[in-house]
Amino acid sequence: MADVEVHRVDSKSYTDNLIGTLLAIFGNVLVSIALSIQKYSHVTLAGTKDPRAFYRTKTWWGGLVLTIIGEGTNFVSYAFAPLSLIAPLNAVSVITSSILGYIFLREKTKPKDFFKRYVVGFLGCFLTIGGTYLFVSFGPNSHDKLNAENITKHVIGWPVLLYLLLEMIAFCLLLYFYKQCNANYLVVILLLVALLGSVTVITVKAISGMLVLTVEGVLQLNYPIFYVMFVCMIATVVFQTRFLAQATELYDSCLIACVNYIFSTCFAIIAGSIFYLEFNNEDILHICMFLLGCVACFLGVFLITKNRKRSKGFEPFVTMDMVQGIPTIHDKGLVVQPDYNGSFSYGALVNNDSVAPTTLPVDEEQVSVTAWPKAAPFRSADQKKD
User: Fold this and answer.
1) pTM for this predicted structure
2) pLDDT value for 11
3) Which whole-number Å values give the CA distances from 89 to 26, 128, 202, 213, 288, in the listed order?
4) In this predicted structure, what is the pLDDT of residue 346?
5) For a 10 Å CB count at each end of the chain, is N or C smaller?
6) Is residue 316 a contact partner of residue 333, using CB atoms and an 8 Å limit?
7) In this structure, how many other beta carbons lie within 10 angstroms of the beta carbon of residue 44?
């Protein structure tokens, strides 16, 4: 009789995991499609010089609606599958964005860069798909029903309190170095984002689980823990957005996507294993294969984003040096002013040794050089002769 009950529990957990995994994959794919549609709207407006604002186009609003649906699907997926299983599935959005960028947005490259970009990107997709299969197949297969009593029991447990204390200390130290010591390193900023993200996914899973139980008829909204989790979720999401916005001002978006995925996934897995005890009933083989799948996804995402950095075309500008009174101009670019790369630079202060300068044509007949009349040498009063 006990064996039959255990079999029913395992079957129910497997079904819930499958539902949560499919919801997460569908949500990530939908969000990637939505973002591509919105980007297509921006590109179309820029190409046609349409005077309308982007929010007045139907494609942009369609992308926004799909984004809301996709994020809502991701939110619900946390109620069915373990946190450690849902967090790494963000790699699906990276694969989808890479494919849509080539097909839908028609991102092209030079023939000499084909191997560097597309073959390596294909290898990255292959590793990411294989890693996704591994961590989904060998991921944690059991988790508790997230009612208010279970969540409160997890919160007041000493492992969670110790984890939150260490996380607060690490966050305060990183924030001190970031603000007071001007440590604007990408690793520092994204570690701040990942520490906040680990709290976000904990609260998202708790709120999602309680809302699903409420829809099923077991009311959970009359417990204070629901509103505590809701406030923590909103606060951490807001601060994450601010730190990510600061990171995008300093670094390339593809590099941010890669490093943020690795950091956020690692901290989410740690948070799930400590807060929800997701790996307590797993053996060593399953844990090792799960970690191997995550590492394969990390490497795949790195290869996909490695060669997708924004290309910064050279922009012409007049240098400050003068050759025989004639200014030189570098004419290999598109517009007039060099990019602002985080530190002040103007004109010739940027190294352009690899760019061949061209000389502006000058009509020599119109160029006249007149010598200044020689002035009498200055003599002090005591040197004057009477």
Assistant:
1) 0.73
2) 64
3) 10, 10, 16, 24, 18
4) 32
5) C
6) yes
7) 14
